[in-house]
């Protein structure tokens, strides 16, 4: 994988690292090894917001997460334990002033995980595999993720 395939595409490196921590807090890895980290939910979000107005809202949400983390626990979000991370996110979702942006961030992370997305280089199980999705599957069909920058830059590798 060349440097052109390395996220972040939309965010700064520090914003991207924080996004990964938020994604892992929302969808932690389960013993079988599937979670936001494994399938690349942060990469999905970073690509999804590329060149859109959503980018500013996601950045604002990340600022709110980091601010609340400092306010509640006196340190950065990524250094918190899972239960503390959950407290930060629940607090922000209960505040009228932060609800909109944090809800959007949460929705994008969940969309990335539950849409059966996986990074171009990830070959493991996805959310659909884990929940035993019983609907019509298209496993043998190449999914069209071409609207995501990560697939434009890294697809097919």
Q: Explain this structure to me?
A:
This protein is mainly alpha-helical and 157 residues long. The chain is 57% helix and 0% strand. It is built from eight helices and no strands. It has helices at residues 13-26, 36-39, 41-48, 54-73, 82-94, 96-114, 127-131, 149-154. The model has no long low-confidence stretch (mean pLDDT 87).
Rg result: 16 Å
Strand content: under 5%
**How many strands, what sense, and barrel or not for the largest sheet?**
none
Unreliable spans are none
**Cα shape:** globular
Helix content: 55-70%
Terminal Cα span? 8 Å
Element-by-element helix/strand order: HHHHHHHH
How many β strands by DSSP? 0
Number of helices: 8
| Class by alpha and beta content | mainly alpha
User: What's the average pLDDT?
Assistant: 87
At a glance:
This protein is 57% helix and 0% strand. The chain is mainly α and 157 residues long.
Annotate the secondary structure layout.
Layout: H1 13-26, H2 36-39, H3 41-48, H4 54-73, H5 82-94, H6 96-114, H7 127-131, H8 149-154
């Amino acid at each position: 994988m060349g440097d052109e395939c390395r996220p972040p595409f939309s965010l700064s490196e520090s914003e991207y690292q924080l996004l990964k921590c938020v994604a892992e807090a929302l969808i932690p890895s389960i013993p079988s090894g599937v979670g936001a980290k494994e399938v690349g939910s942060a990469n999905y979000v970073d690509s999804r917001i590329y060149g859109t107005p959503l980018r500013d809202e996601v950045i604002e949400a990340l600022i709110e997460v980091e601010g609340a983390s400092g306010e509640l626990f006196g340190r950065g979000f990524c250094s918190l334990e899972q239960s503390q991370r959950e407290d930060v996110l629940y607090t922000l979702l209960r505040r009228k002033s932060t609800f909109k942006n944090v809800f959007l961030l949460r929705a994008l992370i969940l969309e990335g995980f539950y849409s059966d997305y996986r990074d171009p280089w990830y070959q493991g199980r996805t959310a659909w595999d884990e929940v035993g999705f019983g609907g019509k599957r298209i496993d043998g069909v190449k999914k069209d993720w071409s609207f995501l920058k990560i697939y434009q830059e890294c697809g097919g590798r």
